[in-house]
Amino acid sequence: QVTLVESGGGLVQAGGSLRLSCAASGFTFSTYLMAWFRQAPGKERELVAAIGWSGRTTYYADSVKGRFTISRDNAKNMVYLQMNSLKPDDTAVYHCAASTRMNLRSSSNDYNYWGQGTQVTVSS
User: Fold this and answer.
1) E strand segments, the chain
2) Integer Cα distance of 15 and 61 in angstroms
3) Which of 6, 32, 104, 111 pairs as cysteine with 118 (C-beta 3.0–4.6 A)?
4) In a 10 Å sphere around its CB, with 0-12 CB exposed, 13-18 middle and 19+ buried, how is residue 102 labelled?
5) How far apart are alpha carbons 91 and 61 in whole angstroms?
6) Burial of 82 (0-12, 13-18, 19+ CB in 10 A)
């Protein structure tokens, strides 16, 4: 059974930091592209960051570039999102996702597995 379980969300003031974690199981994690998406109320799901299977390649949305860092630990089947200098616009439910695609900019339709999400709320 495939599972992706996110943790680390919460309420933080603008300018603060959070580290999201995603624990994966039930598939060959080290061969999958991993990503973080977010969805705010009334908005479409947005790709935040993606990381290749080896961890050597990454992609960031312009809105988070320089503030967020995605990483993975293939030995532990974990993917992380370090979020610094948080803004109220970062408020959303954050989901991790896994894809067999190679393209770091793949759309959400190309992802095979999804987690339930973790809420991030940034107060002004």
Assistant:
1) 3-7, 10-13, 18-25, 33-39, 46-51, 58-60, 68-73, 78-83, 92-99, 113-114, 118-123
2) 19
3) 6
4) exposed
5) 15
6) middle
Q: Which amino acid is at 92?
A: A
Model pLDDT for residues 69-90, shown as the tens digit of each residue: 999 999 999 999 999 999 999 9
Supply 92's token pair: 């959303």
Q: Which amino acid is at 102?
A: M
The first and second tokens of residue 76, run together, are 């532990």
User: Which of 23, 13, 22, 19 shows the shortest CA–CA distance to 91?
Assistant: 13
For 53, the token pair is 């299977």
- Using CB atoms within 10 Å of the CB of residue 42, give its burial: 0 to 12 exposed, 13 to 18 middle, 19+ buried: exposed
**What does the alpha-carbon distance between residue 52 and residue 30 come to, in Å, rounded to a whole number?**
9
